[in-house]
């Protein structure tokens, strides 16, 4: 089968969630509006995640994986996923499944007209502290980037792969994906998606790295924006 859409699943110590991830993504692949494959990126997990991922990939032709030697963080996992994707479209979802894979179809409805379509979590099922810290962090980021996005932390996105591969990722830049598409003169849109409580495993981000991380990353983004190289080839004979 020729695939059109790759879903990246970053994984760090999610052994209790992975069988549910397998079930939900397998079910989605049967109703997806694009022929879909799944790419696990094991970000140096210290639990049994890698063994489970390998077993899942052996069971299904449309599941594959890459595994880091050591933990490098979410931005690195997403960047590796972009690097190893060879379909025309790429997206990602967190392995905690607080968003629903079926909602990828909502995003895919708009991808022909846009270069990035991101979810915005409606009726978030997180704690007050987590919701408030995310609201503050998004406000800080929006003030720096003017990207118009309300929820860049939403782990449900679809991007045209040629745009994704041109993003110069650094640690923390997963929060700035829409802004980085705008730097490429791409078009972005946000679409409401469903949100659920975490059932198993532990959140990987706390209060301080939700607030201090985005603030420091904003200055890195501003530096990159001033230095960013963007070009379009008019003609070639390669």
Largest sheet: 7 strands, mixed
Q: Label the overall shape.
A: globular
CATH topology: Spore Coat Polysaccharide Biosynthesis Protein SpsA, Chain A
How far apart are the termini?
29 Å
Fraction in helix: 25-40%
Looking at this structure, what is the CATH superfamily?
Answer: Spore Coat Polysaccharide Biosynthesis Protein SpsA, Chain A
Oligomer kind: single chain
Provide mean pLDDT, rounded: 86
Kindly give the count of domains.
Answer: 1
Tally of strands: 7
Q: With helices defined by DSSP (H or I, 4 residues minimum), what is the helix count? A: 8
The fraction of residues assigned to DSSP E strands is 15-25%
Main sheet: which strands, in order across? 3-2-1-4-6-5-7
Structure write-up:
With 238 residues, the protein is of the alpha/beta class. It has a single domain (5-227), classed as Spore Coat Polysaccharide Biosynthesis Protein SpsA, Chain A (Alpha-Beta Complex), CATH 3.90.550.10. 38% of the residues lie in helices and 17% in strands. It is built from 8 helices and 7 strands, in the order βαβαβαβαβαβααβα. A 7-stranded mixed β-sheet has the order 3-2-1-4-6-5-7, with helices on both faces. Helix 5 packs parallel to helix 8 (207-227). The chain is globular, with a radius of gyration of 17 Å. It starts with a strand and ends in an 11-residue tail after the last helix. The model has no long low-confidence stretch (mean pLDDT 86).
């Amino acid at each position: 089968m020729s695939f059109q859409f790759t879903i990246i699943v970053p994984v760090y110590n999610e052994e209790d969630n992975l069988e549910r991830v397998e079930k939900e993504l397998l079910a989605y692949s049967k109703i997806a509006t694009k022929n879909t494959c799944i790419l696990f990126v094991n970000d140096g997990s210290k639990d049994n995640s890698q063994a489970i991922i390998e077993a899942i990939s052996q069971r299904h032709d449309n599941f594959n994986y890459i595994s880091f030697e050591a933990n490098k963080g979410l931005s690195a996992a997403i960047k590796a996923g972009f690097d190893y994707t060879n379909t025309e479209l790429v997206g990602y979802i967190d392995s905690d499944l607080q968003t629903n894979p079926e909602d990828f179809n909502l995003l895919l409805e708009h991808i022909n007209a846009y270069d990035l379509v991101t979810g915005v979590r409606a009726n978030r099922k997180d704690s007050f502290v987590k919701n408030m810290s995310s609201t503050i962090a998004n406000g800080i980021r929006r003030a720096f980037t003017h990207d118009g996005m309300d929820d860049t932390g939403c782990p449900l996105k679809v991007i045209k792969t040629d745009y994704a591969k041109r993003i110069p990722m650094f640690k923390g830049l997963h929060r700035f994906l829409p802004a980085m598409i705008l730097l490429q003169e791409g078009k972005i849109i946000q679409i409401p998606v469903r949100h659920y409580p975490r059932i198993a495993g532990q959140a990987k981000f706390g209060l301080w790295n939700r607030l201090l991380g985005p603030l420091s990353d904003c200055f890195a983004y501003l530096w990159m924006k001033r230095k960013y190289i963007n070009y379009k080839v008019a003609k070639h004979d390669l």
